[in-house]
Amino acid sequence: MNTLEADRILAEELRRIAPDVDATSVDRGGDLREEFDIDSMDFLNLVTALNKRLGIPIPDADYPRLGTYAGFVAYLSEKAG
Amino acid sequence: MTQFLMPSLGADMDAGKMVEWLVQPGARIKRGDIIAVVETQKGAIEIEVFDAGVFERPLIQLGAKVPVGAPMAVIRYDNEPAEPVSAVPAPTVEVPAAAPPVEAPPAAAPPARPRPGARIEASPVARRLAAEAGIDLAAVRPSGPHGEIVLADLPAAPSGAAAPAQPPTGMRAAIAAAMSRSKREIPHYYLAHSIDVSAAESFVSRHNEGREPAERLLLGVLLARAVALAARKYQEFNGHYVEGAYRPSTPVHLGIAINIRGTGLVAPAIHDTDQLGLTTLMAAMRDLVVRVRGGRFRASELSDSTITISSLGERGVETLFGVIYPPQVAIVGFGTPVTRPWVIDGMIGPRRIVSVTLAGDHRVSDGHRGAMFLGAIEDLLEKPEAL
């Protein structure tokens, strides 16, 4: 998957969880959970939604790579064929 | 026939606004069915029934204020005689003069969606700010992912002028009422303890390995389950203090404090928490968090909690001291887990430590029992396999 597509999908799924945060205005290198004010339950729901949508496993062990918006996009574009 | 009364909405709210009837006159209803939606300071509350029967007719018009305890509808339950018997005198209903509660004739049954007066979907923060600014949500064009109104859809507030001092509104007013009453009436005492959750965290990691995200656990579920099991044993922390007397509860309905982004917090109950295994409890907590953040939950979830936990999760500070939600008599607070040097069998090593606190009601219990209660939570969390 190319970066633009991964970016669009991540922004869409984040919007379902934090509808009042605009993904285009956040710090892409900042802490994702801080930027979107999401807790561990929100984060798990985000991972669950992306797992269902893209069919990639996203194990707990990969969470460190998902700490920033930019890192999350890179991870998705790498893992989702 | 029986008058169905507006249920309690918890200690901090005494009325709601009727926004939607979900059943037609003559409809069969069963235990747990949602018959109506009422708008409150905390969001949309679903009103459920607790016995099977037939919904005869509504007694409240859309848009009318419904005080707690006011007759909302007439229901003929299966376990009662068919003739109209009303042993209870109808309480007076307090409503705005412009919208008296009239018995809707059958012809005026609620039409199919969309209906006038139906609830407008909006995010909690957009709803709060619109209410504060006097913006009519019906005039706002929604752009949210589910067709709801989000913050960005609201017209920008006039800039330049400093906001005038205002009394709290909406959910903040509800929190202010409940917490002021708590601090006025409940003689709190506080205890704090540090618990090693290394084993509990490893248990969660092992459980989650190789599992789909939908099947995974969070540490917070283990914390909730440990508190529920301990509360079942230590009855002076699980119940309600009403009319000068403590009434312990046999069921444990654990209230979970849930932060709603930009709005405040609510602490709805998960019914019979102590009867739910970890995976069932995890599913119940996920469901509750999603519904609450979407601004919609059930009246019984707001009024039934017998003890509450408040947990800061992974982003927070080390210790949280709670304020008891009346008429409950205890609240357990968990801070953010931290890595600390810890002594085990004479050796120092890094361990994952979480601070746990208890705010207890001194009319019902004291520090000695409180310490045993926190000790029981510690024992449970140190042997997560037994949870």
Walkthrough of the structure:
The complex is a heterodimer of chains A (81) and B (387). Chain A is built from four helices and no strands. Chain A has one domain (3-79): ACP-like (Non-ribosomal Peptide Synthetase Peptidyl Carrier Protein, Chain A), CATH 1.10.1200.10. Chain A has 81 residues and is mainly α. Chain B folds into three domains: 2-108, OB fold (Dihydrolipoamide Acetyltransferase, E2P); 124-166, Dihydrolipoamide Transferase (Irregular), CATH 4.10.320; 180-386, Chloramphenicol Acetyltransferase, CATH 3.30.559. The interface between A and B is medium-sized, with 25 and 31 residues.
List keywords for this structure.
heterodimer, A: 81 residues, mainly alpha, Non-ribosomal Peptide Synthetase Peptidyl Carrier Protein, Chain A, 4 helices, B: 387 residues, alpha+beta, OB fold (Dihydrolipoamide Acetyltransferase, E2P), Dihydrolipoamide Transferase, Chloramphenicol Acetyltransferase, seven-stranded mixed β-sheet, 27% strand
CATH architecture of chain A: Orthogonal Bundle
- Structural class by sheet pairing and helices of chain A: mainly alpha
Task: Give the beta-strand count of chain B.
Answer: 20
Q: Give the CATH class of the largest domain in chain B.
A: Alpha Beta
State the end-to-end distance of chain A: 5 Å
Order of helices and strands of chain B: EEEEEEEEHHEHHEEEEEEHEHEEEEH
Fourth-level CATH superfamily of the largest domain in chain B? Chloramphenicol acetyltransferase-like domain
Largest interface: A-B, 25 and 31 residues
CATH architecture descriptor of the largest domain in chain B: 2-Layer Sandwich
Largest sheet of chain B: 7 strands, mixed
Q: How large is the radius of gyration of chain B?
A: 23 Å
Strand content of the residues of chain B, in percent? 25-35%
Low-pLDDT windows of residues of chain B: 85-116
Largest beta-sheet details of chain A: none
CATH topology of chain A: Non-ribosomal Peptide Synthetase Peptidyl Carrier Protein, Chain A
Order of helices and strands of chain A: HHHH
Query: Please, how many helices of chain A?
Result: 4
Integer tally of domains of chain A: 1
The CATH C-level name of chain A is Mainly Alpha
Total of DSSP H or I helical runs spanning 4+ residues of chain B: 7
